[in-house]
Amino acid sequence: KQEVTQIPAALSVPEGENLVLNCSFTDSAIYNLQWFRQDPGKGLTSLLLIQSSQREQTSGRLNASLDKSSGRSTLYIAASQPGDSATYLCALANAGGTSYGKLTFGQGTILTVHP
Amino acid sequence: KAGVTQTPRYLIKTRGQQVTLSCSPISGHRSVSWYQQTPGQGLQFLFEYFSETQRNKGNFPGRFSGRQFSNSRSEMNVSTLELGDSALYLCASSPWTGNTEAFFGQGTRLTVV
Fold this sequence. Notes:
Distance between the termini of chain B: 37 Å
Mean pLDDT of chain A: 94
Number of helices of chain B: 0
Oligomer: heterodimer
Low-confidence stretches of chain A: none
Order of helices and strands of chain B: EEEEEEEEEEE
Distance between the termini of chain A: 41 Å
């Protein structure tokens, strides 16, 4: 059974800092990994998708890496801004079987960027 | 391109009642999955539908059910509501079945009193 852990649970930083959010997983037989952002009371916004065969993906100030051998993914946010304040979730899709069509989520990292 | 649309956005129901939530996927997407989000359990998978067929189901009681129509729109139903069913219910849309990129709606906030 896939288990996903996100560290830290919460993070508060001043504006402008570069920061790293961590996601670890127990089953490396993944199909892909997605990072999402969730604002309070809202749905999930997809940030980056990394396929199993890829090592990293970049979008603007965001960079996500994937290391299946160590069961880890990191989300790097450069030059953080107050508008980046949200909960960040990583979600994994495992290959086939009872995991078909299912994403397994971590508990999220609550990020606060203060001016 | 319109995103995933969930209706209604908010619902208040009484214990014992039943409720139906609706999800319209992104145009052209044929897979719809549902998740329950609570503060204690986080996001948990309910089920996934593709071509009007349930392809996978999470570990939820039979009171939770769903269906998908020929236009890919999906509904989920919860019967005999319990206080613990209070949650944010999120629907995700994907182009195809299996584990492709998921796009989520804004969710339906269900409160059971």
